[in-house]
Design brief:
261 residues, alpha+beta, 25% helix
Length: 261
């Protein structure tokens, strides 16, 4: 959980002066020093009112300075709570694993918030993979140490998984293994987007917010099981990968990631 602002007021620069440097720039640089030298990841920034009084500036000046640091990824604003120093990003390598397995391997406690599970007629891209007709749509917010990390919108093959809504959906990949449908291969693509308003609300970020979008088509012994889209917060997630010179110069399809466990 984000820590509250330090009890003792942090000594920041005195009220800003009129000069060739705009006041919002002076304030931004002062806040940058505060973040780098005196605050820690997760610490709260002083309130707008405190910054206005301390520096003798308007609310618009404070919001512009803070907004620029939010845009640069140094601060994150949480509606109703305040503005905080950005925590270290979770770094992940491209491999076939569940969110739960991935987060635990990196020392985080994973949890899920189920938003819904219902049987719906599949959209064209989903039907092209899972087959025409109705399939299970499962929507979840995935959290690491209580912080929303990703919004998952996943479709599951209703022919292979009748009665999916009767199960605990906290760890779907474990459930799939128990049902004899363990994921053993997937094709995945990654792109960046600006999240829509609903995604921003689910992830507790201010719009417009960048997200990393993963689209995965997963199979079990060649059977299509899952068509999933995961929107990861751009301020909390990063990717790393190993490259070599053996890959083909062009690839007509997304890379396949076989399981290693």
């Amino acid at each position: 959980m984000p820590r509250s602002a330090p009890a003792a007021p942090v000594q920041a620069p005195a009220p800003l002066t009129d000069s060739m440097v705009p006041k919002h720039v002076q304030l931004r640089e002062g806040l940058l020093r505060l973040v780098r030298e005196e605050l820690s990841p997760g610490d709260a920034l002083p309130s707008e009112r405190a910054l206005m009084a301390r520096h003798g500036v308007s609310r618009a000046t404070v919001r512009r300075a803070v907004g620029e640091l939010v845009s640069n990824g140094l601060l994150v604003s949480t509606p109703g709570k305040g503005t905080f120093v950005t925590r270290t990003r979770v770094e992940s390598q491209l491999h076939l694993a569940s969110f739960t397995e991935d987060m635990r391997r990196r020392g985080y406690e994973p949890t899920s918030q189920l938003l819904g599970c219902r049987l719906l007629e599949a959209s064209a891209p989903v039907a092209a993979f899972l087959g025409a007709g109705a399939h299970w749509l499962v929507e979840r917010v995935r959290l690491a140490d209580g912080i929303p990390m990703a919004l998952e919108t996943s479709w599951y093959n209703a022919r292979l998984l009748p009665g999916l809504d009767q199960h605990d959906l906290g760890q779907l990949y474990l459930l799939l293994r128990d049902q004899g449908l363990g994921i053993d291969a997937a094709e995945q693509s990654v792109r960046t987007e600006l999240a829509d308003a609903a995604t921003c609300r689910a992830l507790h970020v201010e719009p417009p917010a960048p997200v990393m979008v993963f689209v995965r088509q997963s199979t079990s012994a060649g059977r299509p099981v899952e068509y999933a889209r995961s929107d990861y917060r751009g301020d909390r997630y990063s990717l790393s990968m190993c490259l070599d010179g053996t890959m083909a110069a062009t690839s007509p399809k997304p890379t396949t990631f076989p399981t290693t466990s």
